[in-house]
């Protein structure tokens, strides 16, 4: 029994590292990679979670450790909570918005597939930002075009991977994948707007009842 458990454990670890390494294949051959990621089960949620965590750590290093001429943020203004939310919220909101939308347009992907594909698409951005950090100490401010170009390549690469992922996951054409991705971004904007409106209404309500309670307490003390 112990030998069987060890074998299962070692196989699970091996599968985890294979699914993690598969992210390098998806960034090089996205159409084949994202099809295999979902339909051939070559990706895993564990690897996706790992990529997200590593991306957050790299972004933290990128923001806090890059040379001042590239990113100059006073440490007293740095918020790790804001950084994590800035990385995680777009991932969660896009997964939810795209899944809700594509279920209406014959999309075949599950919300976990969208989450996993988004996470795998973050790999080029993460690797490029790792490279940029030491470059900001080697290069001078006059050579700023090199990291700028690399940064832009990472952003464009990410967008291309997202489009390829949506095409393969939902079995869409490129046109339909582009359309549903754009509408998903609009849906994210609507969700954020509704949340902010709800938060504002709740905040106003709490402030009103707090003021009312203060007024009642004041009158009771005077009476």
Description:
This protein has 223 residues and is mainly α. The chain has one domain. Helices cover 82% and strands 0% of the residues. The chain has eight helices and no strands. α3 runs parallel beside α5 and α3 runs parallel beside α6. The longest helix is centred in the C-terminal third of the chain and has 49 residues. 26% of the residues are buried. The mean pLDDT is 86.
Give the SSE map.
Blueprint: H1 2-28, H2 30-39, H3 45-65, H4 80-102, H5 111-121, H6 123-138, H7 145-170, H8 174-222
Overall average pLDDT: 86
What coarse outline follows from CA principal-axis ratios? globular
The helix tally amounts to 8
Classify the secondary structure makeup into a structural class: mainly alpha
Low-confidence stretches: none
**End-to-end separation:** 77 Å
| Number of β-strand runs | 0
How many domains? The number is 1
In terms of DSSP E residues, the strand content is: under 5%
Estimated radius of gyration? 23 Å
Largest β sheet strand count, sense and barrel closure = none
What kind of oligomer do you see?
Answer: single chain
Strand and helix order: HHHHHHHH
Approximately how much helix is present in the residues?
over 70%
Outline:
The chain is mostly helical and 223 residues long. The chain has one domain (2-222).
What are the defining features of this structure?
82% helix, 223 residues, single chain
């Amino acid at each position: 029994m112990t030998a069987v458990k060890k074998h299962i454990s070692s196989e699970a670890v091996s599968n985890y590292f294979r699914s993690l390494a598969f992210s390098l294949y998806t960034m090089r051959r996205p159409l084949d990679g994202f099809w295999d990621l979902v339909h051939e089960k070559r990706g895993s949620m564990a690897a996706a979670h790992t990529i997200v965590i590593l991306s957050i750590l790299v972004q933290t290093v990128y923001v806090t450790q890059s040379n001042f001429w590239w990113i100059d943020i006073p440490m007293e203004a740095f918020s790790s909570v804001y950084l994590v939310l800035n990385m995680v919220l777009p991932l969660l909101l896009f997964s939810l918005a795209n899944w809700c939308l594509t279920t209406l347009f014959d999309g075949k992907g599950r919300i976990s597939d969208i989450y996993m594909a988004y996470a795998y698409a973050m790999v080029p951005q993460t690797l490029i930002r790792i490279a940029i950090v030491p470059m900001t100490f080697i290069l001078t401010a006059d050579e700023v075009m090199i990291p700028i170009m690399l940064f832009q390549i990472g952003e464009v690469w990410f967008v291309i991977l997202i489009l390829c992922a949506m095409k393969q996951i939902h079995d869409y054409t490129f046109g339909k994948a582009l359309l549903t991705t754009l509408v998903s971004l609009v849906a994210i904007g609507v969700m954020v707007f509704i949340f902010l409106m709800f938060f504002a209404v709740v905040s106003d309500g709490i402030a009103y009842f707090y003021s009312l309670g203060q007024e009642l307490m004041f009158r009771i003390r005077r009476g």
